[in-house]
Amino acid sequence: MPPAHPGSFDALVAAPNHHRLAFENDNVRVLETMIMPGDTTPLHTHCWPGTIYILSGSDFVRRDEFGNVVLDTRELGIVISPGEARWSDPLGLHTLENVGDQPIHIISTELKIS
Hints:
- By secondary structure, this protein is mainly β.
- It has helices spanning 11-14, 73-76; strands at residues 19-24, 28-35, 44-46, 50-56, 60-64, 69-72, 85-88, 91-98, 104-111.
- It has two helices and nine strands, in the order H-E-E-E-E-E-E-H-E-E-E.
- The strands form two sheets. It has a five-stranded antiparallel β-sheet, with no helix packed on it.
């Protein structure tokens, strides 16, 4: 499946201070993501679905490319717990702000196959 957005919005290109490539081949891409308390990622995207493994979690606010809040974990009562795994659909253009007091540290495995 080709990326849904230009390469300049890919998480590794647009938000390199928050995303690190751990592994990649033709089928998967493994990213390590770290967002410190009070920090906000630049506008970026994740074009493939995959799993997310949480090493440490915190409350966060995800905004779309226009700055509209699309998810606030505090309002929805979502608890992000270490050791938890979750599914993630592809994410369009967004920022993510860590509004909690712990780092957000995750490992995501994006599935590049359709």
